[in-house]
Design brief:
Helix content: 25-40%
Distance between the termini: 62 Å
Shape: globular
Largest sheet: 6 strands, parallel
Number of strands: 18
Radius of gyration: 24 Å
Number of helices: 24
Strand order of the largest sheet: 2-1-3-4-6-5
């Protein structure tokens, strides 16, 4: 039987190990959706195309493969646009598929075309590649080019448009090429670069690994952990890379939000930066905590983008290539002569444990409404084993950077753009990527959960183990703080507050999920256990002190310093 274009696209994606598709079925994609389900794919319909793209992003971060989402011609594609901007800023290699009317509509003279816009021009600024399958026989080359561009160099999103008249055509297909024939599968560093890196590592007295979110999206945690062991050094997390490598949780410290991390940075004479940009949240690797000792500090930078070297700071040993290849190269070269542990490592591990324990004690207790610090402390103390942590919101995220007691092996949030509303879609995508076998905890503000609250139905429909902790101040909490710092207490705080009667626990029940309303510190952990035992997605709403939430965000000076240089 002849294979139509829509099915050939599925074959091309399967060739890359991709068998999950996010999008709202419509006249342009219903045949693809049905065929995908027949072929054993996960087909997931969100309630908004934007949310579907966020789900695809999260799925990709958890699998190390590009996520795929689609939108129908006109309004569906328009709903993809904001997610395209987010994917670009987050360096997510998401594949956006857009339907459109036949090319006759593109060039006709008559006006007043229904549900039609010239779509590609709206995506060109955000996308690494924009392609159109103008003729059926082009499907292979366009899809392969999209995958090649999305996954090469700095990852990023791509957009492929499929006119309606092409989708169902059945050309004679040539044999499908394996991925290694149309894109780089491996990109190791040069032997000269590895030799220089090993020399610098052996000469260092106080090395650190600076670990970004990229090592997790590459699913390279194991090799980076092995490298830390061989170097004998601490792991300093970036604000984007706040997960913990299994087995190395105790030597992992958060840049800027842990005094131990600050000491490790200030005293370091070698930095091995992996999976991260050296941007504003890291003060470009030059300022603030890096200023002390910069003249005597060597930088090894593992990076896929050749244009990233030497821009924000001098890099002494640039290692150009894929960290999935380069880190094993470093590990292999060090195995014969591993370093001993950094002299301060045991002391730092002890100091970090004491610091986190002290924070747990310091978080105010017994308040109704609750202090956000206590909410974060209790929720993360009850974080489920092997769970995935997702963050969303303003103030509640800042509180988490300091007060979180959990050491999750996977953490997800919108770290580069700070786009509110990604949390619940991210949670759905992450849960689907693990086939619902790992529980997901989303800690979010009440304003941010409202963006895509409808996706709770998606979680219910797919029977996903998602627990949503909602910090509820009935306000745009971070913005209330901005008002007060800028205008003083007593300003109008125009439109920063909203209805106080919203009951998210009852909304959850209306969706068929589990819901609880919790006011006391000691009730948070039992509520989480009941939510897990319910076998349903859950909303746990916790009212917090709106004044403390707005004005007592810990280490706010550190956060505000990100844009100060």
């Amino acid at each position: 039987m002849a294979t139509p274009v829509y099915e050939r696209i599925l074959h091309l994606l399967e060739n890359e190990g991709i068998k999950t598709l996010f999008g709202i079925p419509d006249p342009g994609f219903i045949h693809m959706a049905v065929k995908a389900e027949e072929r054993g794919w996960q087909v997931v319909a969100p309630h908004h195309e934007q949310a579907g793209c966020f789900m695809a992003d999260a799925w990709g971060r958890m699998t190390g493969k590009p996520g795929v989402c689609f939108g129908t011609m006109g309004p569906g594609v328009a709903n993809l646009a904001a997610a395209a901007i987010v994917a670009a800023k987050e360096n997510s290699p998401t594949i956006f598929l857009g339907g459109n009317r036949g090319r006759e509509a593109e060039h006709r003279v008559k006006r007043g075309r229904i549900q039609y816009i010239s779509q590609t021009k709206y995506f060109e600024p955000a996308m690494k590649y924009v392609g159109v399958i103008e003729y059926a026989h082009q499907a292979d080359e366009v899809i392969q080019e999209a995958i090649r561009v999305a996954t090469s160099g700095k990852p990023g999103p791509v957009y492929v448009e499929i006119p309606m008249h092409v989708l169902h055509e059945t050309p004679d297909w040539t044999p499908m090429a394996p991925p290694e024939e149309y894109r780089l599968i491996h990109q190791p560093a040069s032997a000269q670069g590895i030799e220089a890196a090993i020399k610098a590592i052996k000469a260092a007295k106080n090395p650190i690994i600076l670990a970004g979110h990229g090592l997790y999206t590459a699913r390279a945690q194991g090799s980076v952990g092995e490298l830390a062991e061989l170097i004998g050094c601490p792991i300093v997390q970036t604000s984007g890379g706040t997960a913990f490598i299994p087995g190395y949780e105790d030597r992992t410290f958060s840049y800027g939000f842990s005094p131990v991390a600050i000491e490790a940075v200030e005293t370091s004479d070698l930095v091995v930066a992996i999976g991260t940009e050296l941007g504003e949240p890291l003060h470009f690797g030059l300022n603030r905590h890096w200023a002390a000792g910069d003249a005597g500090r060597t930088w090894i930078y593992v990076e896929r983008d050749p244009l990233a070297f030497g821009v924000n700071r001098k890099i002494h040993v640039p290692l150009l290539g894929d960290l999935r290849d380069i880190v094993p190269q470093l590990v292999e070269a060090l195995k014969a002569q591993p370093r001993g542990p950094v002299a301060q490592l045991d002391g730092w591990v002890k100091a970090q444990a004491e610091f986190k324990a002290a924070l747990a004690e310091k978080a105010p207790r017994g308040q109704v409404p609750m202090n956000t610090a206590r909410l974060v402390t209790e929720a993360t103390l009850a974080f489920p084993k092997d769970g995935i942590l997702v963050r969303d919101g303003g103030s509640v995220t800042i509180f988490q950077w300091t007060y979180s007691q959990a050491t999750p092996n996977d953490v997800m949030w919108n770290q580069n753009l700070g786009h509110l509303g990604t949390g619940l879609p991210y949670a759905v995508g992450a849960a689907l990527a693990t086939d619902g076998k790992r529980p997901v905890m989303l800690i979010t503000g009440d304003s941010s959960i409202m963006f895509h609250i409808s996706e709770l139905e998606t979680a219910v429909r797919k029977k996903l183990p998602i627990i949503v902790i909602i910090s509820s101040d009935y306000a745009w909490g971070l913005e209330v703080g901005v008002y007060r710092r800028a205008m003083g207490l007593g300003s109008l705080e125009t439109e920063a507050h909203w209805s106080k009667g919203v009951r998210f626990d009852e909304i959850a029940k209306g969706f068929g999920a589990y819901g609880e309303y919790v006011e006391r510190d000691e009730d948070i952990a039992p509520a989480i256990q009941r939510a897990l035992a319910s076998g349903k997605p859950a909303f746990i709403q916790i009212p917090v002190d709106p004044d403390a939430n707005a004005t007592e965000a810990p280490n706010y000076e550190e956060y505000s310093s990100w844009a100060a240089y």
